[in-house]
Model the fold of this input.
Amino acid sequence: MTQVCLNGSRGASHGALIPLSPGAMADSAADAVLAGATDVHVHPKSPCGQDTLSPRAVAATLTAIRSRVTVPVGVTTGAWAEPDPARRLERVSGWTVLPDHASVNWHEPGAEELAALLIGLGVGVEAGIRSGTDGAARFAASPLASKVLRVLAEVTDTDPTTAEATVHTLLTDLAASPHGRPILLHGEDTSTWPVLRLAARRGLATRIGLEDTLHLPNGERALSNAQLITTALAATHHP
Done:
């Protein structure tokens, strides 16, 4: 599986190519799927371009993207979009259009309750386990570990010379939990491409998009999510 992560927390300051409106996200998702993406991860935005869990924004985003693609579409539930755990639960409870899946960062306060709510709603949970946090240990102790859709193993080490060692540590920590769920492995910024190639060698699902990197492997600025997907598929078929 190759997931496209359309925008992340990036905004207008990162350039006009970042899709911020529902229509722009839908266009970008459609192009990425045409290029070979098999799943979509998106951050719905407020009118001022900030990440939001607002039911209205989530509904508009999902409706627009689903009008253009038939692959699964997931959203973030990151604490930066709503820092208060109780308010985050309230927001998600109010969603009128449900995503196919939603990422839940296991190191964040209220993760367990939020994941339980989503599972109860029939939404698949991507358990976000970030390197350098206690997420893996908390996930190993969670009664929900075997119930999530997949584990989102996120390498926050952006140094290409140490990222592979960080991947090894993260995957070893995850192996301590008998969760039995598939793993999607990805890096960010300058570790994006090395981690993506490593995921391919290990036979793991991965993702690419303007959330994770703004650049191609040669350092050139990426022109679109579709270009990143095309480049990633070429790189993983010829590691």
Summary: Strands lie at 2-5, 39-42, 73-76, 101-105, 124-130, 150-154, 183-186, 205-208.
